[in-house]
Amino acid sequence: MSDFLLIHGAMHGAWCWRDLVPELNLRGHRVQAIDLPGHGGDMTPISKITLDLYADAILDAIERDFAGGPVQLVGHSMAGYPISLAAERAPDKIARLIYLCAYVPAAGQSLADMRKSAPRQPLLPALIRSEDGKSFRVDPAKTEELFYHDCPEGTAAYANMRLCAQAVAPQAVPCPLGENYASVPRSYIRCTDDRTIPPEFQVTMTHDWPAADVYEMETSHSPFFAAPQELARLLSQITG
Predict the structure, then answer these.
(1) What are the boundaries of the signal sequence (predicted)?
(2) How many other C-beta atoms can be found within 10 angstroms of the C-beta atom of residue 36?
(3) Integer Cα distance of 33 and 18 in angstroms
């Protein structure tokens, strides 16, 4: 049995793990999913949200829900950055970092920088920026093709009711990492039919990782909806 803390990606919330949590529970794991600041039920104002605040929320959840850990820390998409920062701050609280079609921080690069360096930017045409430039949303008419094209019928409608504005600030700063981060085991799950983060860029981000630490799923950017049983099985396999 493992303890899992699930961290959602941009614009999402703990709600996106709806189908995965019970599948992990059936396999005997203890699981929590949280809303990062400004997401889901958390009402933190956009102007207050930072990458540091995201990492604080993760470490607070480990203390609150798992008595300090260590936990299997799963980060989807954008969450690759805050889970990495959490590991740098408190490596003893994290048994393993698991990047689920997520950004792996590169030295000196913000998440926005990494997105721009990808060979394609399928998300960019769908973004709707706020008037003050501090946040963005995705055009609801395009969420299905970007995030949920292989998910059960009704998934996009369910998500569109819950997707929130995404603060720009956490994605505009590099993630300072050092020996603490390097000491934490890590795994990556690539999604080969991802229409948000190009699959070939997921390969680039993990090109120098040991083959044993990289896995693949033939799904969209949302395997927690598209194949929750398979994802739960794979997470169980990764954590032994």
Answers:
(1) none
(2) 27
(3) 9
Beta sheet of 166-167, edge-to-edge order: 127-129, 135-138, 166-167
Task: Provide the whole-model pTM.
Answer: 0.98
Average pLDDT of the segment spanning 54-73:
97
Q: What is the per-residue pLDDT for 73?
A: 98
- The pLDDT confidence band at residue 172, using thresholds 50, 70 and 90, is very high
Q: What range defines the domain where residue 162 resides?
A: 3-239
- Residues whose CB falls within 8 Å of the CB of residue 159, separated by 6 or more in sequence, listed in order: 12, 16, 143, 147, 148
Q: Distance of alpha carbon 62 from its chain centroid, rounded? A: 16
Q: Identify the helix (H) or strand (E) that includes residue 216.
A: strand 214-217
Maximum alpha-carbon separation in the chain: 47
CATH classification at residue 91: 3.40.50.1820
Lowest-pLDDT choice from 7-11, 117-121, 170-174: 117-121
User: How far apart are alpha carbons 55 and 117 in whole angstroms?
Assistant: 24
Which pLDDT value is given to residue 83? 99
Give residues with Cβ within 8 angstroms of 188, minimum separation 6.
98, 99, 102, 104, 202, 205, 206, 209, 213, 214, 215
